[in-house]
């Protein structure tokens, strides 16, 4: 067993939970190394294409169609493809809740406890740019990290909020087709992955989080539309944080019903509540997780008209219109909003009283109005495909100028390359990284300073 000091109280409880044979297998799993995973961004590239183009040695996660294991000795966060938003580094079991929540384009989706964004990025990719994703985290600093990951993935139909669930409910009661509640928990399933979780567990155990979870799920149910689906998940083993929470929902909300999750090889049924799904590190190649899917009875999702109502086309500033003419992807001007010189492209669905919440982002930030010019954003670059911008320059990943660009340095063109003037979308192997502005043989770097290669 690894040098992880776990209390006898926890070990005794796990023995009672698993039975002697499974308990011994669970203890033996600590002798094995943790597993490393990445999830491919299907908004930008297919898993099959990514496997062919990457130098990483990957093995598929059997139950995740776009999930892969990679060798822990490799450094995938130091790869230009990571900066192009082609994949997210995520523990394999943690990929499961968002993967199993059946999102379809056009859904209105809430990720209630979303930071740092591992599950939100998958939910957003499933929407394919249609509908709405509201990603919330109560911590403002964590919500900022969440926003960066969503923008890196090129997801434009987002609202990022930092609110208490009760406050969120004042705007979104009965609004969402799909909700993911990846609840704060005691983290028992992550002890092998992160030994620091043991110390946190000793400070706040299952009973502490149980009270928080009960409050959160009550507000989440109230935000679910009739016919909607809610996925509840944790990375812990305790019944009081898992099956007991689901029982509480079913007892307090008679309009909610449990939807049986399909088991796959290595997955286990709920303990005392069939239809849930449990992942144990001694049964699968991943850490511990719990999931339960619930449906609100009555109605069918996606039937109510909830669009913004901004139907009238508007006249835009000349500088902005000139820049947008470089983009071939159609933009509806009625959804463009300018606030404090920042330009936003609002989501298709947005409640009229949405401004009462604390938003970090409403829709896609297109850029900023400067004196007699428009400066496009990093988020806009990430949301585009190379063929959607008029002037592009794509480097092969091995070209040293890729790293120079990501470090914020000036990019110089070779004698063999065509001269570039004006805005240019810089790409790596055809995948956008950000903007630059050419004056002939040099490109002034516009890569966002906060995202630069360190």
Automatic annotation (TrEMBL):
S-adenosyl-L-methionine binds at residues 113-119, 137, 182. CDD domains: AdoMet_MTases (cd02440), RsmF_methylt_CTD1 (cd21147). One of its GO terms (molecular function) is RNA binding. The active site is at residue 235. It comes from the Bacteria. Keywords: Cytoplasm, Methyltransferase, RNA-binding, S-adenosyl-L-methionine, Transferase. Belongs to the class I-like SAM-binding methyltransferase superfamily. RsmB/NOP family. This is NOL1/NOP2/sun family putative RNA methylase. It comes from Lacrimispora xylanisolvens.
């Amino acid at each position: 067993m690894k040098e992880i000091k776990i209390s006898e109280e926890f070990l005794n409880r796990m023995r009672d939970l698993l039975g002697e044979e499974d308990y011994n297998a669970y203890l033996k799993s600590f002798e094995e190394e943790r597993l490393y995973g990445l999830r491919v961004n299907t908004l930008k590239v297919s898993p099959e294409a990514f496997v062919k183009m990457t130098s990483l040695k990957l093995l598929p996660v059997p139950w995740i169609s776009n999930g892969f294991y990679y060798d822990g000795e490799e450094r995938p966060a130091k790869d230009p493809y990571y900066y192009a938003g082609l994949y997210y580094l995520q523990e394999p079991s943690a990929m499961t809740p968002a993967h199993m929540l059946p999102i379809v384009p056009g859904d209105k989706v809430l990720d209630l406890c979303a930071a740092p964004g591992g599950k939100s990025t998958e939910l957003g990719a499933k929407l394919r740019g249609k509908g709405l994703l509201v990603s919330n985290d109560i911590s403002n600093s964590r919500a900022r990290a969440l926003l960066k990951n969503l923008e890196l993935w090129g997801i434009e139909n987002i609202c990022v909020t930092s609110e208490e669930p009760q406050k969120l409910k004042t705007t979104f009661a009965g609004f969402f087709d799909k909700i993911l509640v990846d609840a704060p928990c005691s983290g028992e399933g992550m002890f092998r992955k992160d030994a620091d979780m043991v110390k946190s567990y000793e400070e706040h155990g299952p009973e502490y989080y149980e009270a928080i979870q009960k409050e959160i799920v009550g507000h989440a149910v109230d935000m679910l539309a009739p016919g909607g689906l809610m996925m509840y998940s944790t990375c812990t083993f305790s019944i009081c944080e898992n099956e007991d929470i689901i029982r509480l929902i079913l007892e307090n909300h008679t309009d909610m019903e449990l939807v049986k999750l399909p088991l796959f090889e290595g997955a286990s049924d709920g303990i005392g509540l069939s239809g849930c799904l449990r992942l144990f590190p001694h049964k699968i190649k991943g850490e511990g997780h719990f999931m339960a899917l619930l449906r609100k009875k009555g109605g069918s999702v996606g039937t109510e008209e909830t669009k913004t109502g901004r139907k009238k086309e508007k006249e835009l500033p000349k500088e902005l219109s000139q820049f947008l003419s470089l983009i071939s992807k159609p933009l509806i001007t009625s959804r463009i909003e300018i606030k404090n010189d920042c330009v936003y492209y609002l989501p298709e669905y947005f409640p009229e009283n949405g401004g009462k919440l604390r938003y970090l982002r409403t829709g896609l930030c297109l850029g900023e109005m400067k004196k007699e010019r428009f400066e496009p954003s990093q988020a806009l670059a990430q949301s585009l495909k190379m063929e959607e911008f008029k002037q592009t320059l794509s480097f092969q990943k091995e070209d040293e100028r890729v790293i120079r660009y990501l470090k914020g340095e000036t990019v110089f063109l070779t004698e063999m390359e065509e001269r570039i003037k004006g805005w240019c979308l810089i790409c790596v192997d055809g995948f956008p990284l950000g903007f630059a502005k050419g004056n002939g043989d040099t490109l002034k770097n516009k890569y966002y300073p906060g995202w630069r290669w360190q």
